[in-house]
Design a protein that fits this description.
binds zinc ion
């Protein structure tokens, strides 16, 4: 039996709010208690670690990632800090000089640039010559492409979303992106995935949900990601394959569900989220895009439910929510609510649900896989959502508190590379929502980023995602710092820091970003900062 005793810290365990020590044996939690109790085990444990006041908590689950494109942004050209179109061109030019194959970049956001627009194709060509260049916008729903890359996807020209000079969107964008990603080598792809997983582990994440699909990655890409996640010293990778009706294929690929980025619509930033009322900043008026019908949604849910695997969709606008809800109702009529509940279907993003949508989702046991960092990036009365939708509608977005009150299970994710792998940032964003009425407590947010992700993946067993005896020893150790209990409105309530309340505290996020010292998956170390003895 391999055993490890941690003592002298703070252990985040609901059963024992004052725990300071934890024993791990054979990949599972064997005991939790205080230092006095730990002395019983210290003689027999193979190793004993003095935590020196560090904080031990369940490792995070990121319920929505794209490993390859995240990794390519880590290993490729990062345009996220760019301040103007001219600045972008200068960085692209120097990266193109250093690139032999296709140049991949990500993260530009023209909304705050003085030019108010991204570089044109002609400007891009002038600085990269005949290099194939693919540069996705921060929301990944549109991209700039050089002429050399466009030539690799000749059919894109006749597709929806094509532009001779500007960014490509929708179908044209997908064809050009496919061409770019198939131009990277297998080695480039694997090292990108490895880089993304290593970064996840260094931020206390021990499990990611890879949202793959034919329009966003490839079968080979998903197989590689699952293989990497099967290595014991890597974060776990749970795969989703987002393709209509592809239930058998999802199963063959080893995916947990025919779910994830199965697109009902696009994104608000790219004006492709499906709305019931037109965008506020478009003339002629537009309701965005709808890629699936309610009948198609229903058919997919029925097929997946019958096969016993999860179905799910990417749904952002209120129009897309309507489509999904009516599809779910049809599926419910066909199979009954109990069948749908046991399949535990899931929806990605779900930024504009109505109260009645939330009631339906709670009733059918559908998990909402949401991204609090979206609100931090684009919410508020002067943010991108307000520009696209008007202040009134923007204030309704990402209603986390109403979602929890309705009984919907929340799972948090980053949608990396759309926002960074930053789980504490997501906890902070959810507990300090731009609309105070939508904020949830840090504790609820932390649960959504740990146990919520396990539930979203139908991870059964002994309470995965919490520290409890018998559960997998999957946890992270965080550098010592102030701990607190934070109420939904941001108040630190006097009662809850009273030991008698029995509420275990979390890191005080106003005191700075917690620093990860170690991440452990099923008893195996997947990240070590070197700070623990
Ligand atoms: Zn996604």
């Amino acid at each position: 039996m391999t055993s490890l005793l941690l003592r002298g810290g703070h252990v985040y365990a609901a059963q024992d709010p004052f725990a300071t020590a934890m024993l791990v044996a054979d990949g599972r939690i064997a005991w939790i208690g205080d230092d006095e109790g730990a002395s019983v085990y210290s003689a027999d444990a193979e190793s004993v670690i003095d935590l020196r006041g560090a904080f031990v908590a369940p490792a995070f689950v990121d319920a929505h990632v794209h490993l390859t494109s995240t990794g390519l942004t880590l290993t490729g050209l990062d345009l996220s800090g760019v301040v103007s179109a001219g600045d972008a061109l200068a960085r692209i030019a120097s990266a193109a000089q250093a690139t032999s194959g296709v140049l991949i970049g990500h993260g530009w956001d023209e909304s705050a640039w003085p030019e108010g627009r991204p570089p044109s194709r002609v400007e891009l060509d002038a600085c990269v010559g005949d290099t194939a260049v693919y540069l996705s916008r921060v929301d990944v729903h549109s991209a700039l492409a050089s002429s050399a890359l466009r030539a690799l996807a000749p059919t894109a020209r006749s597709q929806d979303g094509w532009s001779e000079e500007g960014p490509l969107a929708r179908a044209a964008h997908h064809l050009v992106r496919d061409a770019a990603f198939s131009a990277i080598t297998d080695e480039q792809r694997r090292s990108a995935q490895r880089a993304a997983l290593a970064t996840a582990a260094s931020r206390g994440i021990a499990s990611v949900h890879e949202n793959a699909g034919p329009t966003i990655s490839s079968e080979l890409d998903l197989r590689d990601a699952l293989q990497l996640g099967a290595e014991p010293d890597m974060p776990e990778v749970i795969g989703y394959w987002g393709s209509l009706g592809a239930v058998e294929l999802a199963r063959d690929l080893g995916a947990r569900g025919a779910a994830g980025d199965l697109f009902v619509d696009g994104s608000i930033g790219s004006h492709t989220a499906c709305l019931t009322r037109p965008y506020s900043d478009l003339d002629p008026p537009s309701l965005g895009a709808a890629y699936l019908t309610a009948d198609e949604v229903a058919g997919h849910v029925v097929e997946a439910t019958r096969a016993g695997i999860q179905a799910g969709f990417h749904v952002i606008g209120d129009g897309a929510s309507h489509i999904v809800m009516s599809g779910l109702s049809q599926a419910c009529d066909a199979l009954g609510a109990a069948a749908l509940r046991s399949a535990r279907h899931r929806l990605e993003h779900l930024e504009m649900p109505s109260a009645s949508h939330l009631a339906t989702l709670a009733d059918l046991g559908v998990v909402a896989s949401v991204q609090p960092a979206f609100d931090a990036a684009w919410g508020g009365d002067s943010g991108m959502y307000a520009t696209r939708l008007g202040v009134e509608r923007a204030r309704q977005l990402n209603p986390f508190a109403p979602m929890l009150r309705a009984g919907v299970v929340l799972a948090f994710g980053s949608d990396a590379p759309v926002t960074p792998l930053d789980p504490w940032g997501s906890v902070r964003a959810a507990s300090r929502h731009t609309q105070p009425g939508h904020s949830i407590s840090s504790r609820a947010a932390f649960a959504a980023h740990t146990r919520g992700g396990r539930r979203a993946a139908r991870d059964e067993g002994v309470q995965p995602g919490v520290l409890i005896v018998g559960a997998p020893a999957t946890f992270a150790v965080w550098a010592p710092g102030p701990l607190t209990v934070q109420a939904p409105d941001g108040r630190v309530s006097a009662w809850s820091t009273d030991p008698r309340s029995g509420t275990p505290p979390l890191p005080d996020l106003d005191a700075g970003q917690p620093v990860c010292w170690r991440t452990v998956r099923d008893g195996v170390m997947i990240y070590d900062s070197g700070d623990l003895p």
